[in-house]
């Protein structure tokens, strides 16, 4: 078995759901999980995510992903089983056939990407998610601006080419590791920054976002406030993690978007108090 995968104690944990495991192949999907693997086994094939069963963000996110799954299928692959002991907590999903999406200008995937964001935007907010308020951008905004990010729409937010998968007849949004509820425009806004990072100019990126109902119905002031908060957030993260090239790229894209919207952002202005 690969040294990057756990040993016999883990296969014993999942055995009631898998039967005998013939192969466990690690994958690059699910960056926040200690284990992500395609498991071929006596009971079929599963995509397995697992984290150490210790209090903290990674455990909380995996639990949240399991709770939201029934409400986001078939946009997301279905959760088939869950397993937990004192060492591990694991989720076993159906295996889908899809490739990472292409966000670059001229990509044939762009209409499918917009379609899946619109499908996400049509999801209702289940009772289980009522307490999952979106707060990630709040400390990078004034209290008044942070209020503009609130709402009753179920949000995905983890929009990137690795998480939107394109199949021959379907598309999926995978890795629902931290769904929340807030203003509906936030998901299309996250797409705008990703499109700019992939090579789009800000104007064309917003033109694609305008294909989403959640964007066209949004208040311009709210989008401007989000663009500013998003830039402050990525600047802070990039400054604290100078070797993370992807964060540098996102900060650059966020800056380009804020400049396009003519949103002034003081580099040193950060609202650190959590709200």
Question: What is the strand and helix layout of this fold?
Answer:
Elements: H1 8-18, E1 21-26, E2 35-41, E3 44-52, H2 57-72, E4 79-84, E5 88-93, E6 99-100, H3 110-121, H4 143-147, E7 153-155, E8 164-166, E9 171-173, E10 180-182, H5 186-197, H6 202-209, H7 213-216, H8 220-240, H9 245-260
Antiparallel strand pairs: 1-2, 2-3, 3-5, 4-5, 6-8, 7-10, 8-9
Strand count, sense and closure of the main sheet? 5 strands, antiparallel
**Which strand-content bin applies to the residues?**
15-25%
Overall body shape = globular
Q: Show unreliable segments.
A: none
Order of secondary-structure elements: HEEEHEEEHHEEEEHHHHH
First and last CA, distance = 45 Å
Structural class: alpha+beta
Account of the 3D structure:
The protein is of the alpha+beta class. It has 2 domains: 8-93, Phosphorylase Kinase, domain 1, CATH 3.30.200.20; 99-260, Aminoglycoside 3'-phosphotransferase, Chain: A, domain 2 (Alpha-Beta Complex), CATH 3.90.1200.10. It has helices at 8-18, 57-72, 110-121, 143-147, 186-197, 202-209, 213-216, 220-240, 245-260; strands at 21-26, 35-41, 44-52, 79-84, 88-93, 99-100, 153-155, 164-166, 171-173, 180-182. A hairpin with a 3-residue loop joins strand 4 (79-84) and strand 5. The radius of gyration is 19 Å and the shape is globular.
Brief summary:
This protein has helices at 8-18, 57-72, 110-121, 143-147, 186-197, 202-209, 213-216, 220-240, 245-260; strands at residues 21-26, 35-41, 44-52, 79-84, 88-93, 99-100, 153-155, 164-166, 171-173, 180-182. The chain is an alpha+beta fold and 275 residues long. Strand 1 (21-26) and strand 2 form a beta hairpin.
């Amino acid at each position: 078995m690969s040294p990057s995968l756990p040993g016999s104690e883990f296969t014993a944990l999942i055995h009631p759901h898998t039967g005998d495991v013939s192969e466990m192949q690690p994958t690059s999907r699910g960056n926040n999980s200690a284990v992500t693997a395609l498991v071929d086994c006596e009971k079929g094939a599963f995509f397995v995510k697992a984290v150490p069963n210790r209090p903290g963000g990674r455990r909380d996110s995996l639990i949240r992903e399991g709770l939201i799954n029934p409400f986001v299928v078939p946009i997301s692959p279905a959760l088939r089983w869950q397993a937990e002991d004192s060492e591990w907590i694991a989720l076993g999903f159906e295996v889908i056939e899809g490739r990472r999406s292409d966000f670059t200008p001229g990509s044939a995937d762009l209409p499918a990407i917009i379609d899946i964001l619109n499908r996400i935007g049509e999801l209702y907010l289940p009772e289980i998610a009522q307490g999952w308020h979106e707060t990630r951008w709040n400390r990078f905004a004034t209290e008044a601006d942070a209020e503009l990010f609130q709402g009753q729409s179920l949000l995905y937010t983890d929009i990137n080419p690795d998480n939107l998968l394109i199949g021959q007849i379907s598309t999926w949004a995978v890795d629902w590791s931290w769904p929340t509820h807030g203003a509906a425009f936030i998901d299309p806004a996250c797409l705008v920054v990703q499109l700019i990072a992939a090579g789009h100019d800000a104007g064309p990126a917003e033109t694609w976002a305008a294909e989403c109902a959640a964007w066209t119905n949004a208040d311009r002031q709210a989008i401007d406030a989000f663009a500013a908060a998003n830039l402050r957030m990525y600047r802070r993260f990039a400054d604290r993690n100078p070797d993370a090239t992807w964060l540098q790229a996102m900060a650059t894209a966020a800056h380009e978007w804020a400049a396009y919207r003519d949103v002034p952002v003081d580099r040193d202005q950060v609202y650190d108090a959590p709200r």
